[in-house]
């Protein structure tokens, strides 16, 4: 770790943290890294050669787009005038960490978490530990489309924790039923015993024989680590998906939630009966109708979270070959580099978050990402997604959301925050950390650990689309400032200097930056000079020396109209094009962001033989949530053979890759602390 321009005493606790970390790194890890570096080089050479004809897993799509032109003239100065809390407009409700969590598709559980409760993926634990270090805990939803027809069984024919019955899949986008054993719940529990992960699960709603085993076993095994049970996933799509007859509406759904709540009155459900998450509506039902139905008000004692789900766009036509418009990612990359787009997306929920406040319930974005049906290659897996997700997260915070879960889908999607290696290459390749994982870490540091941070959009620089800024207040004062620069200019001509005017006298501020050479770059993202490297490069621990910049400020005084003296300090902070800077106005603002919890890390220390078959499951692509009516119609009609809509639609083949296994590497957990 190197902390620049800084009295080492100031960062004594930071240093201690680092020494603990060093202590945990053993020699075998160094060897691993060298091996990985060689592998990375050959992997990137192979990738470069095949961009035009890439047919591999979506998660490693090497396509690089062209950045939108930087604005002319360039913004080179942004004035930020901070005010005490009483004068700052638009502050959110008090927010606590974690704000960003993960929604991990249930069907990819074995790939992501590990094969069973005694075979946990070490890089996954490290990735969670990094978040815990900053946010105290991680919230993960084990669920998604595939939770709806999941069934708990005593055992699977393949002896595994999860099996998917592809024989009963009838349509392209039909959700294959998942049969899972109670081992999955033990696995989640064992993860929580190693890193502080809290879980959301979902009661299957594919039909009204609500299979309650997940609530029974979830509550029995996970106890307080189970923090919510979703009652239905996107019920507004149920008629389109053939799960309910025509005419199914908000009131019908409300009746079903009532039935589940009735079942939960049984004593065995004591620990989960007040943890319901509802309504998880996407985009078909009018939200005001849902709030007007009394669903929340009449079941207030049972409900823990009010939820919605949303993707801003979809890539369904390209992935499934429907006759909807195939979106060329190059045409929409600008939508992910514009503050106004983020505001439009989130402001849609402003009246709903106010409603949630009247009900004293947290409002959660239960599943989201850059685009449904797997995301856009070149956007979802590029630095653009880091900046976008961070702006989106802060905009949700400002708009009084309490949490948001970023979706993880496995090998077949582009937008993963992290991707486990395909099992047949895990002997030498490791995990791939995506751009929005960095956003999760940065968001955790931005919100901080006080539990009462309040966020305001500053509408900076005349509400400029490319240079948004937010302030985060703690108590009565601004504590942190978040500065974005969406422009790309490798000459430095669009870097800007924020002139931050802070109330009171301060000598200096500390700055951490999130950087990449270009917005379109797929690898080479750095947070305070630390990175998780290129594809297949990560064991879940940050690499590189931490660099925190110190910026000296200039105090000044002025005379107010009433004759009193006003003291303020001016701090000049540069923000690269493209990039993001988090400015800590006080030492405690920095301490709160990353010193509260020492990191526990886990090293990969043993090899075992592994054998598995990977199969791409279309339902992990989260097909349901895009905005393209044609696609939704297609999805509803062809998947389930209902009438209408399918005429003229090319029915694509399901992409199923059977991956034959070489000797793989398993990772056996060895706890180093
Ligand atoms: C867990 O998975 C590993 C790797 O596949 C296997 O060796 C081990 O026997 C499994 N343990 C149990 C209890 O199933
Ligand atoms: C719901 O899922 C269960 C478990 O996969 C399955 O047995 C049942 O047939 C499904 N119901 C409908 C209506 O498809
Ligand atoms: C993991 O789960 C198994 C049950 O499947 C249990 O026997 C074991 O003690 C657990 N390990 C930890 C570390 O919690
Ligand atoms: C967030 O909630 C606060 C407190 O109720 C309110 O003043 C503010 O206007 C809300 N913000 C938005 C963007 O709706
Ligand atoms: C960033 O970290 C690398 C090590 O990965 C180090 O060589 C480099 O000097 C660091 N940058 C700065 C500005 O300290
Ligand atoms: C892994 O599986 C993929 C897909 O079948 C194949 O293209 C690749 O060559 C395999 N890699 C190894 C190292 O076996």
TrEMBL record:
Presence of keyword Signal: yes
Endpoints of the signal sequence: 1-27
Taxonomy, superkingdom: Eukaryota
InterPro entries for this protein: GH, GH79_Enzymes, GlcAase_C
A family per Pfam: Glyco_hydro_79C
Keyword annotations from UniProtKB, A to Z: Membrane, Signal, Transmembrane, Transmembrane helix
Domain Beta-glucuronidase C-terminal: 469-582
TM segment ranges: 647-669
Protein name: Beta-glucuronidase C-terminal domain-containing protein
Organism: Pterulicium gracile
